[in-house]
């Protein structure tokens, strides 16, 4: 009975995601045409600029305090490890199955970014609802679960919109500039040929005609060497300038600080500073209406992103057979490799005293390694164009598998932290 109760707790949020995804697919078919290309693009911008920042800011401001940040210091490290290890596994997957260049950003993002938002917000508090739950008093457990899950969502948003977002952006720009790179390569090769053609070493043939003056010949040879050195130095300087220019173009602060990241920073400041909490967050606060409005806007983020996944699925199902190795690879990374590595990391950190001994907290840390890809990947791919269909197929397949894998992992994690 305990297994089946936990099975239903873990299964329900995944089923909700699948149902809303199916609705998005229905709304996107030609017969209805509600979520066409233009509508999807506009909805994407609403999620990116309005709904996403609102949900992160409001949840952080409400649940995070300075005390929580100090106690839960290991969670940012844990989430960062899920992203870095996922990226490394995604890179190996790209090399093994030879993923096309235009899908590199999508694969790395899906392997790195888990759904650290709505699934933990539903699963972790739900574990506490039973009166005979294994995590202590129901009210205390639920309060802690909301704080843990909200911080998880906020950290996920920071890493997704600063780290993964820029990975997708950089690879998208690489795809769009392939032709430009080829042109530049031709120009550089031509310039090198010009340098070789101007190589003064060919003057030695002139010396062969007049070898009476060895001193003059030596001077000319030294001149040749000096010209070659100058050419190499100037070429190196030009390469350095080009690298600095490329780096300056890639580091774009407006892109790095995405709206969701700004919302996270604001939410953390409001939550940590007591004066701001009294003015904005507490129920009797004079400006509580602002926080309440942000909550209303944020509630629309998850349904909107999930509808977009379903809407993009119409295009992706056309080439589903070609994407089968990709789907299988990402499924293995997210549901087998990452959770296994996560168990070693969390249990190791607990053994060395880096994590306080709260089983619910340890359960969430383990859960962060076993989640399906973040739904925000669909928004990123839509923003940059290319790979929308593949992204939707990956989402449908991984969330379908999550109905079983996530449930089994949750059952095992509960046993692990309580044993």
From TrEMBL:
Topological relation to the membrane, as annotated: Multi-pass membrane protein
UniProt KW Cytoplasm keyword: no
Xref: Pfam families: Mem_trans
GO biological-process terms attached to the record: auxin-activated signaling pathway; endoplasmic reticulum to cytosol auxin transport
Taxonomic superkingdom: Eukaryota
Cellular-component GO terms for this entry: endoplasmic reticulum membrane
Compartments where located: Endoplasmic reticulum membrane
InterPro entries: Mem_transp_PIN-like (IPR004776), PILS1/3/4/5/7 (IPR045033)
KW Transmembrane (keyword) present: yes
Biological role stated in the UniProt entry: Involved in cellular auxin homeostasis by regulating auxin metabolism. Regulates intracellular auxin accumulation at the endoplasmic reticulum and thus auxin availability for nuclear auxin signaling.
PANTHER family xref list: AUXIN EFFLUX CARRIER FAMILY PROTEIN, PTHR31651
Family named by the database record: Belongs to the auxin efflux carrier (TC 2.A.69.2) family.
Protein name per UniProt: Protein PIN-LIKES 3-like isoform X1
